[in-house]
């Protein structure tokens, strides 16, 4: 953070967005209407890049690292005319898809990762950025037999953000 302290993008950044920061970390404060449905997104993969990066939830301080499968670094393919990810891609901090609990919507257990976010704004963000997003929609995927939720969102500071509106969003903590 700006104070030079190490933080975890998974544990130390609140889920809900707010207008204030303390030592470079978005802070939790009392709710108000302006920030009621805004969430913090941690950018893992900037738009137009190929390396599949993710928050390492099992490592101390949860660094953002390149995903490895079968001993090989993972990349997303280019699909003409685009290069890499066509959106900024990341995760909601302090969320987790439980691999031991079946999702009622998909009848599959979670993928053991934070909830994914596809940020569709016009700006190219940087890896590790924490941005306030408003949720526009949600898509449930089943990937290799596991539930993998994808949120479609836009950075509230994007010039186009005022043109997009989503429904009220509520996340409930699972017991």
From TrEMBL:
InterPro entries per record: Pyrophosphatase (IPR008162), Pyrophosphatase_sf (IPR036649)
Domain of life: Eukaryota
Group of enzyme by EC: hydrolase
GO cellular component, one term: cytoplasm
Record's keyword annotation contains Magnesium: yes
GO terms under biological process: phosphate-containing compound metabolic process
Record EC number: 3.6.1.1
Chain segments annotated as coiled-coil in the UniProt record: none
Keywords: Hydrolase, Magnesium, Metal-binding
GO MF annotations, alphabetized: inorganic diphosphate phosphatase activity; magnesium ion binding
Cofactor dependency: Mg(2+)
Pfam families: Pyrophosphatase
Family, per entry: Belongs to the PPase family.
Protein name stated in the entry: inorganic diphosphatase
